[in-house]
DNA sequence: GCCAACGTTGGC
DNA sequence: GCCAACGTTGGC
C-alpha cells in the first residue's frame, strides 16, 4: 500500500467534480511526464491512498482524499488527434502514456494550504515541495498522518 | 500575468 | 551525447 499526492487544477477538475462522477470515479488522463507515468505504471496499486491537491488555487491546498481503484492502462487521449493530450508518438500497440482510475473518498472540512505545508518542519522533505512541478508525487506514511492532523481529519 | 524551474526536443 | 532553445507547470 502506497500514499500519493495528485495535483489537479480545480478550475479544470476539482475534488467536487470527482465526487460527482459516476461511481465517484474517473480516469486520471493527460499525464505527460515520465516520472509521474512511472509511478502510475510501476508502483500504483489498487487500494493506494491519495491526497487530492488543488494546484493553481489561491492558495494551493490539499483538498481531500481519494484512492486508486485500477492499475495503469493505456491513456487513450494520447491516440486522439482532437485531444489536447494527443501524442502522435504514442503507439496504440505500445502506449507511451498510461492512466489509472481514481475514486473519491472524502473532502476535508479544512483543506491544508500550501503555505502551512511549507511552514511545517515535519513536511520539509515532502516530494510536493522538493519536486515542485511534478503532478504525481509520493507521500510517506508520516507525511500522510501529519497532513491529516493539520486538516483535523481522522486517518 | 510574470517568471523561475525544469523537462523535452532537436541540431550539431 | 551535448546543450541551447523551447514549452509547460505552477507558485506568487
TrEMBL record:
- Per its UniProt record, what Gene3D superfamilies does this chain match? ph1033 like domains
Q: What is this protein called?
A: EVE domain-containing protein
Task: Tell me the organism.
Answer: Gynuella sunshinyii YC6258
Q: Which Pfam families does the entry link to?
A: EVE (PF01878)
Under SUPFAM superfamilies, the record lists:
PUA domain-like (SSF88697)
EVE domain ranges (all copies): 2-150
What keywords were assigned to this record? Phosphoprotein
Amino acid at each position: 500500500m502506497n500514499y500519493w499526492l495528485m495535483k489537479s487544477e480545480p478550475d479544470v477538475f476539482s475534488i467536487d467534480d470527482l465526487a460527482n462522477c459516476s461511481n465517484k470515479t474517473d480516469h486520471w488522463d493527460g499525464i505527460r511526464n515520465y516520472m509521474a507515468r512511472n509511478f502510475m505504471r510501476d508502483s500504483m496499486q489498487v487500494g493506494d491512498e491519495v491526497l487530492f491537491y488543488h494546484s493553481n488555487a489561491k492558495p494551493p491546498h490539499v483538498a481531500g482524499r481519494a484512492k486508486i481503484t485500477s492499475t495503469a492502462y493505456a491513456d487513450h487521449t494520447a491516440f486522439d488527434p482532437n485531444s489536447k493530450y494527443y501524442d502522435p508518438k504514442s503507439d496504440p500497440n505500445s502506449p507511451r502514456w498510461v492512466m489509472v482510475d481514481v475514486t473519491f473518498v472524502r473532502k476535508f472540512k479544512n483543506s491544508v494550504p500550501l503555505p502551512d505545508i511549507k511552514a511545517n518542519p515535519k513536511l520539509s522533505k515532502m516530494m510536493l515541495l522538493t519536486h515542485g512541478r511534478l503532478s504525481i508525487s509520493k507521500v510517506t506514511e508520516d507525511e500522510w498522518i501529519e497532513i491529516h492532523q493539520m486538516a483535523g481529519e481522522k486517518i
